[in-house]
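Example complex used in Figure S2.
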Amino acid sequence: MTRVRVPWLFLATVAALFVPALGSRFYTFVATDVVIFALFAVSLNLLIGYTGLVSFGHAAYFGAGAYATGILMKKLAVPFVLAWPAAGVVAGLMALVAGFFCVRLTKIYFAMLTLAFAQIVWAICFKWNDVTGGEQGMPEIPYPELGWMSALPILGDWRASDHFYVLTVLLVAACLWLLRRLVGSPFGRILTTIRENPERAEFIGVNVRLYELIVFVIAGAFAGLAGGLFGIFNRGVFPDFAYWTKSSEVLIMAILGGIGHFWGPAVGALVLLVLNQQITSYTQYWPFILGSILIVLLFGFPGGIVGALAGAATRLRKARGA
Amino acid sequence: MIDPSFLFAQALSGLTAAMFLFLIASGLSLIFGVLRVLNFAHGSFYMIGAYLAFQVVQWAGRDARSFWIAVVLAALGIAVLGGLIERLLLRHLYQREELYQLLFTYALVLIISDVAKVVWGTGQLSVSRPPGLSGAFRIFGTIVPWYNLFILVLGPTIALAFWLVLHRTRAGRFIRAGALDREMLGALGINVSRLYTGVFVIGSFMAGLAGGLVTPVKAIVPGMDVEIIVEAFIVVVIGGLGSFWGTFLGALIYGQVLSFGILIFPRFSIFSVFALMAVMLIVRPWGLLGRPLKT
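Predicted assembly (617 residues):
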């Protein structure tokens, strides 16, 4: 039986573009959140799922990107077309500096050092009042100039937040497409080799540290791009973006969706954020629910949602074949 | 020229903070050293310890003994809690990757913080200093509460007692052996699984004890759990994960860096401790007094 390749990215993008057509401000809000976090979580999974590096400080690059875009757009009135890529560049450079040291360590020490760097970034954002606005953060980041969208058919009637959503979906889809190509490339294969057996990768002539550093920078840059979008969406940038609990939040998304699949973390972002919206309207004790979900997941479904579904699909196919 | 009595006060306050940090971090370090699990929930145990102590003081009323009973009960309560968590849940994750263990302990952080909010609310709670230690005395122009002096004496005493248990008793020898080679210890006929439970219980006990003792000095608030765990991480990283005296030294250094960091760069004192942690991990990942991990 030949397996049909499902163009998941294309389908998801088309489906996502229909969300504003529902006409609900709230749906668009949640969908923007989901799309941005999908990119953030997938970028983290380059490290965890593909290379086997457990980063506990990925929020640093998300936060750095958010501040980069936010400062450029608000204080310097730089247009979005320059301010957004700058988020990727700034976050990527920071990941280069941090990663240079982090990849020298393994396992728990790697996790601790990523955490330490993230806390440094957080402390700087928290205290450097002149540039980052300190503890109060930086409210009122302007929307990018999207007036041209009003001239388009259908889109013309939508709100500014819908226009930003459309832009976000297209940009994130492009990023995810790039990342998908990346992990399917020979480069991606080497990452998997490193995850499975770093010593053996070294023996066959792979410069393990260099590859780890490159993927760390790429993951950081894409997290930064996600952060850049998030700052605008959130109408403000705050030091919390880089705090270690943010790093664990995105880690939970990745695990929930499943780190064994490219789309797993994106699914995790979707499920977690939608669930969050639903549950927080009933109770304020979302952390309790999240913790409980996490425990069930760790013990019952270590492969996450996508892992469990893929397992079920395989069993089904086998049962039919037999 | 800065007033020397001010420097003395600053050093003393750093020292007091260091004693609490040592109590917390020593449990964290012990658990990591033997079980190889970095327990994010250790700060939550400390917080629950503080709340338990507060609760017991509420029930027992304000007589001279109730504070001490509260501290002991808090420590014991957290020890039991830790034991249950290890026996029922954590042990099933030992064979899995670190990521799963880390996330499990993080899940505990989330759950415990909400449970504490449900039970004790979100306001600030406090416990007054126990009668008998409620006064203060003056030294070199600095007013020092008797309770702080008590903590300054208690910290090293507990450290010494802890060290004696680890190095001069049979159980301590097993614990140190478990840190070096768990398989060999098991092969020699030691029940390693029970040893692990024991270590987790002792570590949790220390967290609960610190939580109980800190109540007269610090307000009990939600969020003290995630704040302290990061500090405890810094301490164990400086001293060396799994190293006993390293933790003590790490706590002393951290306390002084924090209290003098505020003088030197008032705005960047949090920054300086994280930078210290990062530099330590880069230069000597195993800390000042630790040993490089076997890989």
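The mean pLDDT of chain B is 85. Chain B touches chain A through 43 residues (CB under 8 Å).
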